[in-house]
């Protein structure tokens, strides 16, 4: 098997699910793949795009499975949010009134780490992802990110967070407005999916989004996120 493709067994391990369950979904056309010489093969990039979309509807338990199966050596014992988010990468309030200005401002916030090497490249990659399908949820939260990792454009994976004083059109379902933004910039797909799964669980935590929306400043927002993240780990 080429290292550029997953076999059925490898995909099951990658997703943290039973092989028979995955095979049923594949045969029903629910998972993108192709047969070569009678064996199923799956391209990692196609699987990442498919899984990213599927995760929007996952329960906490399903997200926890994805999170566990995508842990890396660097995040083996700690939440990726605890490792990749810092006080300096949070801006509340975030003074931006349009989708583009939000993305530009969030990249400036991320740039405080000195890990953003090619901001124009990252901005273009994030805008391309948004053109395919908005990363906004119906709860007023968006998680902008590149469609594919751009490792040459940043030094280390990181997360930035910002909240605008009022909601703006960002492509949410039913034309809802968005005011909370988590910018996710990862150097590899495994870390990317790990972060998305963890953020998804955090956003499902009862009361978390409402509390975050009421946080008056960056420090309060950071402390609230860290506390909620620690509760997920402990729970």
From TrEMBL:
<feature type="domain" description="PTS EIIA type-2">
    <location>
        <begin position="83"/>
        <end position="228"/>
    </location>
</feature>
<dbReference type="GO" id="GO:0030295">
    <property type="term" value="F:protein kinase activator activity"/>
</dbReference>
<dbReference type="Pfam" id="PF12728">
    <property type="entry name" value="HTH_17"/>
</dbReference>
<dbReference type="Pfam" id="PF00359">
    <property type="entry name" value="PTS_EIIA_2"/>
</dbReference>
<dbReference type="InterPro" id="IPR002178">
    <property type="entry name" value="PTS_EIIA_type-2_dom"/>
</dbReference>
<protein>
    <submittedName>
        <fullName>PTS system fructose-specific EIIABC component</fullName>
    </submittedName>
</protein>
<dbReference type="InterPro" id="IPR016152">
    <property type="entry name" value="PTrfase/Anion_transptr"/>
</dbReference>
<dbReference type="InterPro" id="IPR041657">
    <property type="entry name" value="HTH_17"/>
</dbReference>
<dbReference type="InterPro" id="IPR051541">
    <property type="entry name" value="PTS_SugarTrans_NitroReg"/>
</dbReference>
């Amino acid at each position: 098997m080429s290292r550029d493709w997953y076999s059925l067994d490898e995909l099951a391990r990658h997703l943290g699910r039973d092989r028979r369950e995955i095979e049923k979904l594949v045969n029903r056309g629910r998972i993108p793949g192709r047969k070569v010489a009678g064996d199923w093969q799956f391209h990692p990039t196609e699987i990442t795009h498919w899984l990213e979309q599927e995760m929007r509807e996952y329960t906490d338990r399903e997200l926890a499975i994805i999170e566990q199966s995508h842990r890396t050596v660097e995040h083996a014992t700690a939440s990726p949010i605890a490792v990749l988010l810092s006080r300096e990468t949070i801006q509340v309030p975030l003074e931006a009134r349009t989708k583009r200005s939000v993305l530009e401002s969030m990249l400036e916030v991320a740039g405080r780490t000195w890990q953003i090497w090619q901001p124009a490249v990252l901005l273009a990659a994030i805008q391309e992802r948004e053109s395919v399908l908005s990363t906004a949820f119906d709860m007023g939260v968006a998680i902008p990110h590149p469609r594919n990792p751009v490792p040459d454009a940043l030094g280390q994976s990181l997360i930035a967070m910002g909240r605008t004083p009022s909601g703006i059109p960002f492509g949410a379902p039913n034309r809802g407005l968005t005011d909370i933004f988590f910018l996710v910039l990862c150097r590899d797909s495994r870390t990317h999916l790990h972060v998305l799964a963890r953020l998804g669980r955090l956003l499902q935590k009862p009361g978390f989004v409402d509390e975050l929306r009421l946080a008056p400043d960056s420090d309060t927002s950071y402390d609230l996120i860290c506390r909620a993240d620690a509760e997920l780990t402990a729970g």
